[in-house]
Amino acid sequence: MNWRSTTFRFAGLVFLLQLAGAALLLGIVHQLTQNQIRGEARARAEALRDALLPHYRQRGFAVLARAVAAQAGPGKAAGAVVLLADRDGHAVAGNLAAWPPSVPPDAPAQTIELFRIGHEASEQMYLVATPLADGRLLTGHVVESEQRFTVILEEAMASAFAVAVALAAFAAWISARLIVRKLAATVGTARAVAAGDLDQRVPAEGGDDAFAALGDTINAMLDRIAALMNELKIATDGLAHDLRSPLTRLRSTLERALLASDGEMARAAIGRAIEEGDRLLAMLDTALRISRAEAGLGREHLVDTDLSALIADMVELYGPIAEDRGFAIAADAAPGLRARVHRELLGQAIANLIDNAMKYGAGRILLAARETGEGVAISVGDEGPGIPEALRPTALRRFGRLDAARTEAGAGLGLALAAAVARLHGGTLRLHDNRPGLRVELFLSGHAEPVPASTSPQARGRGG
């Protein structure tokens, strides 16, 4: 799971909230327990003090000393701590050997560790000091067992907190998995549609939550897209038929005019008009091929193809043309490299890349094919000036032409068609620096989902 993803952040939030809740609950339990222990100890110490002070007020210090001695004697309340001392802190009566130096006569109640007379080990005691006119009184209660219980409770809380951490992590994981599972069908449908299957829809799970609303909205959107794509197919097919006929008739008329013309200038002008007509027909045909490929039309024509042989055929076909233009063209493909491709469209795309390399590149043109972990990569590289990275998106757009390319004939559709063919095969058009020159790579995946044209981060190239 990507730590930057929304799902991870949601899981982290669930984990932190669960952890904070457990920590708050354990902290409250610990604080309440401590308050209860201190409260009971203070109540006992003050009750003992309140039982002894009337003796002092009614009969004086000596009577109080006898009462303290009796209270410290055997058979009295277990855990009681009492000490009567004179003004100088010397013990007069009680079960402590001396007044604790750390406890002033007017000190607030506190817990300290002392030895009681007749006990071999020190004990935790909660003590309340009371100053008298001719001495001082110390009353309290042993809280050793309570303190041991507190330690056990703290250890139990530490164990409980560790369990809470594990449960919080499990709850976060379950929450993240639930979201992923809820969205899996939606993501799968979106990927299938991106691959060209416009008949896919998000399965209806019922319910009245945000996930159900999302699925219904996406299905409604896909219904609309499917309707628009069907209208586009009808419109483009009709456009192709409607435009080709008059353009073909126009070319035929120009050819007859060329044969009937006697003037050299007129014949040259008519020849240029015929060339422009041919160029317009080629642009129309290429634009229609791009639209149909981006719509996913043509997957039914994917066939198992020997790409090594296809590469060799392309090099053989373009070898003489390249030599006439001062280029050297070579192939680099392992024998027996095969894939399911649309042979006609792929051949057109490779031809466009070679034509671009001869128009704008220089030196040696290398046509290569290699197998990758997820598919096949076919590349065409040259040793020309290349294209600055900032201008590559422009070169890839339909009819996008760079300033350096405007001196050459072309419509800016070559790489747009190559990118559409790559997406038809579930891949992308990638650009690499050939050092020097440019290497344009068609990545074809027989099983990977295609990357939409608007979101492909590596779809770059030159128009041609």
UniProtKB/TrEMBL annotation:
<dbReference type="InterPro" id="IPR050428">
    <property type="entry name" value="TCS_sensor_his_kinase"/>
</dbReference>
<dbReference type="Pfam" id="PF00672">
    <property type="entry name" value="HAMP"/>
</dbReference>
<keyword id="KW-0472">Membrane</keyword>
<keyword id="KW-0597">Phosphoprotein</keyword>
<dbReference type="Pfam" id="PF02518">
    <property type="entry name" value="HATPase_c"/>
</dbReference>
<keyword id="KW-0812">Transmembrane</keyword>
<feature type="domain" description="HAMP">
    <location>
        <begin position="177"/>
        <end position="230"/>
    </location>
</feature>
<feature type="transmembrane region" description="Helical">
    <location>
        <begin position="156"/>
        <end position="174"/>
    </location>
</feature>
<keyword id="KW-1133">Transmembrane helix</keyword>
<dbReference type="Pfam" id="PF00512">
    <property type="entry name" value="HisKA"/>
</dbReference>
<dbReference type="InterPro" id="IPR003660">
    <property type="entry name" value="HAMP_dom"/>
</dbReference>
<keyword id="KW-0902">Two-component regulatory system</keyword>
<keyword id="KW-0418">Kinase</keyword>
<dbReference type="InterPro" id="IPR003661">
    <property type="entry name" value="HisK_dim/P_dom"/>
</dbReference>
<dbReference type="InterPro" id="IPR003594">
    <property type="entry name" value="HATPase_dom"/>
</dbReference>
<keyword id="KW-0808">Transferase</keyword>
<protein>
    <recommendedName>
        <fullName>histidine kinase</fullName>
        <ecNumber>2.7.13.3</ecNumber>
    </recommendedName>
</protein>
<feature type="domain" description="Histidine kinase">
    <location>
        <begin position="238"/>
        <end position="448"/>
    </location>
</feature>
<dbReference type="InterPro" id="IPR005467">
    <property type="entry name" value="His_kinase_dom"/>
</dbReference>
<dbReference type="GO" id="GO:0016301">
    <property type="term" value="F:kinase activity"/>
</dbReference>
